[in-house]
Amino acid sequence: MMPVQVQSLFFQVLVILGALGLFLFGMKTMSEALQRIAGGRLRSALASMMQTPARQVLVGMALTAIVQSSSATTVMIVSFVNAGLLNLLQSIGMIMGANVGTTVTAWIIALFGFQVDVGMAAIPLIAVGCPLLFSRRDKVKASGNIIIGFALLFLAITILKTVMGGFTGDPRFVDWLGALGHHGFWSLLMFMGVGLVLTVVIQSSSAMIALTIIMCSNGWIPFEYGLVMILGENIGTTSTANIAASVTNTNARRAALAHAVFNVIGVVWALPLVPVSAEGIAALFVALGGASPVADPTAAPVAMALFHTLFNVLNTLLLAGFIPQIASLVTGIIRGRAASPAALRHIGPTLLSTDGISLIQAQSELRAFARRATRMFGMVRNLFRETNADRFGELMAALGAGQRENARFRQEYSAYLARALQEDVGAEAKQDIQVMSRLAADIEIMSDSAYSIAKLIRTKKEKRIWFAQQMRDDLNRMFDLVDEALAVMNANVGDLRGRAAGLAGALGIEERIDALRTELKEHYLHLCGDEEANYQATIMFADLVTHVELLADAIVHISEDAQEITSHE
Questions:
Q1: pLDDT tens digits for 222-234?
Q2: Which of 20, 416, 550, 552, CA to CA, is 20 to 30 A from 75?
Q3: pTM as predicted
Q4: Closest by alpha carbon to 361, among 40, 556, 146, 76?
Q5: How many CB atoms lie within 10 A of CB 497?
Q6: In the chain, how many H helices and how many E strands?
Q7: Which helix (H) or strand (E) holds 306?
């Protein structure tokens, strides 16, 4: 049977771990709800972000401030690099911005968790937020999750402050921490290592920063050592993206490594300056009429949030001009040719973000899929005109490879959407995912139809069936209408927010294709004579017209499905 003191210690450790779990759950709840509300803004930001390094940094800051997790943002960035949506230089700029954006969390913890007594307010906040969860409107439900997320966050901080405050009077802890602090610069390294290791274990720098602030505010550790723990936590947080990138392509692994390199460089120059920084911040607080965080632990929370912000802002300002050099360094460390995945281009194989980002990635994949299928039809038109046997064979092989790649894409894409549906997404997001699944199926049908037309053209060539010039001209008329339908389809898929050509244009082209099909079939079937060559040409022509119509129908269905997304955005 355990002694009473051991039982008490074991219970306190469990309570601390439970409070950390509550903190992480609150952060996750709040983060995902914020992303649902800001999903449209996230899409707009990603669409216009990559013009300059300054804009890359700003977008990284904004995304992290919205997501409330630098780890989530960095994993997202690595996923985009893996897909080829971002290049290495762009990703490094965004990662720098993410480091600045994550400092918002420390300020929330410092200002609300310590300057205001939120312990008694947590339960009333849950009472306010809970009814909102039963709303049928996704944004109202998300607002309820934000309120409850904040309540859980502050409840966890209150528990941590209470439980860890009990350790303060324990002479064994006081003596042990005092012993760690009498080794000069080695003490700084030890506390930095503690922050690094614990962040890797917990996989949340936000939770570790909250824990560090509480330890300082309770007088467990001196202010100076709290600052070096924050530096260690900045390195530890890079482990999440590097773990996620282990199964991605070369450039994505480089982007994740760049995050670690950037933070390590920052710690290298900042660590020797921590004693001076601690004194400077203390002097600033005293000059402003406040208490010194060195002498008064209750002043530590805001002071530590200030240090966290200053460090990340200064590190970004110092290294923003060296993005090409950082890229060269990580390229030299991780050698190999940067290649994109065979099928999915905008989604990493294992990187599934929360629903707001999942939809952005899924829609980017859909647009790329539609463009690839469109290019297949362009190859079919070239095949119809081609007279050189070698070039004809190359086009046919390329079309076969494209059809197989599109089938592989559909399989991977459907698996991704199925995973997204398993997440806690809203009703509108779920509807969008289901529509995107149908869109992918229609695009695959379109791809298969294009390949079927190519095989008919190959059969025509192999059987030496000759089309009269009028037949060729009439078939090209249908091809031209299909090209018009493809332009409308790509506009609709490319703009799933309802500003493109819409459904009317697609339906108008479909009517013209149907009318032309009827006209051509009636005309050529009546002209079918007794000559075997003429009969074979007419039958082949009718088969091609039928398959072109099937292709056009699939194209129109894509525009119809796209409207189901635009209708509620």
A1: 888 889 988 988 8
A2: 20
A3: 0.58
A4: 76
A5: 12
A6: 23, 0
A7: helix 300-319
Is the predicted pLDDT of residue 131 greater than 60, yes or no? yes
Burial letters 303-319, b for 16+ CB under 10 A, else e: bbbbbbbebbeebbeeb
Structure tokens at 565: 């997304």
Among 422, 520, 427, CA closest to 470: 520
Spatial CA neighbour of 26 closest among 204, 125, 151, 129: 151
Reported for 52-56, long-range contacts at CB under 8 A and 24+ positions apart, including other chains, are 53/89, 53/93, 53/320, 53/323, 54/320, 56/90, 56/93, 56/94, 56/96, 56/97
DSSP H stretches of helix in 84-170: 88-101, 103-113, 122-132, 138-168
Q: Please report, for residues 193, 522, 523, the alpha-carbon distance to residue 471 in angstroms, rounded to integers and kept in the order given.
A: 77, 13, 11
Tokens, residue 456? 């008919």
**Location of structure tokens 């017209």:** 545
What is the fold of 355-566?
A: Methane Monooxygenase Hydroxylase; Chain G, domain 1 (1.20.58)
Instruction: Please give the distance of CA 133 from its chain centroid, rounded to a whole number.
Output: 25
Asked whether 377 and 486 are in contact (CB, 8 A), the reply is yes
Number of residues in the chain: 569
| Tokens coding 367 | 């647009």
Q: How far apart are CA 426 and CA 402, in angstroms?
A: 35
| Token duo for residue 424 | 């806690």
Q: Residue 239 is which amino acid?
A: S
Q: What are phi and psi of 433, to 5 degrees?
A: -65, -40
DSSP-assigned states of every residue in 458-494: HHHHHTT----HHHHHHHHHHHHHHHHHHHHHHHHHH
Residue 332 contacts residue 465 (beta carbons within 8 Å): no
Q: How far apart are CA 43 and CA 41, in angstroms?
A: 5
C-alpha 205: how far from its chain's center?
19
Residue 164, C-beta contacts closer than 8 angstroms, at least 6 positions apart: 16, 214, 215, 218, 220
Rounded Cα distance between 206 and 195, Å, is 12
Cβ–Cβ under 8 Å, residues 183 and 194:
no
| Interval 400-417: pLDDT, tens | 888 888 888 888 888 777
Residue the block writes with tokens 């189901």: 564
Query: What does the pLDDT look like over 417-472, one tens digit per residue?
Result: 777 777 665 666 777 788 888 888 888 888 888 898 899 889 888 888 888 888 88
DSSP string, 215-259: HHHTTSS-HHHHHHHHHHHHHHTHHHHHHHGGGS-HHHHHHHHHH
Q: Which amino acid is at 492?
A: N
- Region 279-296 average pLDDT: 87
